[in-house]
């Protein structure tokens, strides 16, 4: 049912009024950005009614609440998504047209709230969408970074980072909630005092610096169910005139430092993905949002419950990787020092409230904090971790008497460091991986000792994505076609897509499907022309790799193969070759020099290939600048081939792979992460699988690596490609790509050359690419394959993932908000 607010006339009136009220302008005078704001306020108004209604329903029904604790939420734009979920996109589009406005232009005015890096942050955003849609009460807890993920500009082929000042015009979909502010304390020391009344020690934290945490709430709308949940992100403000305790009075320097602390703490998102830097400010950020969120959760619980020992019946904290793991010690602190519980009771509650998700096995991503830093910054929390560690070591000794290896491998504090994953596993009641293969690797390799000691904690939750954003909003043509064929239920039940299988041999349906793909390719071609100035042919195969730039994801393998194809075409101009457009999009962490060089290489290859008239436009290479959620939606819809080519065992799950599949692009990939399950769903004949298996890779790794020299010396075509990195083919500066060349071959290169088996998998990849070309030439076969990818993607909805979390870990209650 359409809300009154979204009746066209009402809506138009409201937009005009907002423009007047906000900017003292008429619609004709207002800029597109101002109109975006006005439209958003109209939409927010409707959302706020549902938000209040949801709050009322929750108060009445008292459901268990999940707090999804995450340093990152990669939300993407809110306006279009909210309109989809409110069932009002069509009406609003028409209303805007009647006002002479294009909804796409209006949507384009919104900055992408990019408060995340990549997979982990986007997963958090998909989960919030599914939680609201499935009628569960959930809070996202995070940080309101002033500057989110940097904007990527490409200058002379290099990545240049520009600040992302997403709040500069004010963000319409947030609400400041100063009445829920909390204090967070850093530094200082702990004084112990005997408490004769309760017959126990009292720990008093003194000499600290305090920061005020102020929450901003963003509404998370469910699909067509009136549910509005909350993403609560914390801003930091100086404490002045806020509970300044007597200790601080007159301490001018401390006051100034507190002011600085508040100013820096939420300033910027660390743009590291899968690489731990050990920066003090990052630990401050973690403790800041965790402490504030826990305080708020406990306060909320106590408003309507008087027995804190039953907290776990109403509350669960899900820790999105180890980044918020300090939560377990902070919860202990709050339960003991604030609520007055003893250790055993506090531990019992904590271990029933906290659960941990692991998102990576990359060893350089594992968070370990130096004791010195940790104990200085969080003295009381560190004391608690020490005690957790002491008790855990006793447990190890009891279970494995005399086995010091176990202590060495499992201790929470060891080698001068606090190991956050160990803390999360010991204190959490659930440990999950994010795809079947990933969970098996955790159990049998990375976390083997923990799995053997506490097998009951380990479980798998294969990731998913929300079809509301990545099909309904991102690919309206295909969404309408699907609805036309099987009805609209797929929007909340993606398993319905399997009904499309009956069209796999229906020529008319296949043609419609491919016509939509073509139109989406034209849309992307237009985007590329506007943003990159490169003309690409929508009749060519759109072969796409978009994701963070990382060596393990092997964009380098992709571009080396492009060079190889280029050489082939040059050497055999008469050769039969189906035109191909290789499209890349990727941000590299600002400090990751080799990753940035790979971007430069892609752009240098693009320069040469795209400007070589002798190849008749058979090959094009495009690097899409500033890959982010908003352009991702357009990119997935237009893909023919989905590149998922990580070194097996390294990609925990991947979620881009699922977005491509949903939009009808077959996977060209390794048997890694969720690719394994994608192939299982769609059938091997509808994917292009290549490369070494995770077992083979792990086996090599455990036995000192493999020998890329052998390949270099015996495969002249690969050798030619490598030579071209350093002989001036792609840069007159022959040193430009020396480091990349060395990384593949140089034995002095630590820990070993070609760590990611690029040469080892090259031939197998090239053969798989050949199979892609053959398949694409057979139009009917390709159409069937593409359609079947969409039809078999039902498993990969985040609705399914969330329901599994609810059934196995969270045990939430369904709430009813919308009365029928
Ligand atoms: C401490 C620096 C740091 C920052 C981010 C370490 C690790 C991370 C993330 C855990 C990296 C990440 O985003 N992992 C991705 O998580 C996705 C969601 O589960 C998976 O689909 C991806 O395979 C995984 O790389």
UniProtKB/TrEMBL annotation:
Protein's UniProt name: Alpha-1,4 glucan phosphorylase
Keywords, in A-Z order: Allosteric enzyme, Carbohydrate metabolism, Glycosyltransferase, Pyridoxal phosphate, Transferase
Tagged with keyword GTP-binding: no
Cofactor(s) needed for function: pyridoxal 5'-phosphate
Function of the molecule: Phosphorylase is an important allosteric enzyme in carbohydrate metabolism. Enzymes from different sources differ in their regulatory mechanisms and in their natural substrates. However, all known phosphorylases share catalytic and structural properties.
Post-translational modification N6-(pyridoxal phosphate)lysine, affected residues: 659
Cellular component annotations (GO), alphabetically ordered: cytoplasm
SUPFAM superfamilies: UDP-Glycosyltransferase/glycogen phosphorylase (SSF53756)
Gene Ontology MF annotations: glycogen phosphorylase activity; pyridoxal phosphate binding
This enzyme's EC code(s): 2.4.1.1
Listed Pfam families: Phosphorylase
Catalytic reaction annotation: [(1->4)-alpha-D-glucosyl](n) + phosphate = [(1->4)-alpha-D-glucosyl](n-1) + alpha-D-glucose 1-phosphate
Family per similarity comment: Belongs to the glycogen phosphorylase family.
Biological process terms in GO annotation: glycogen catabolic process
Enzyme class: transferase
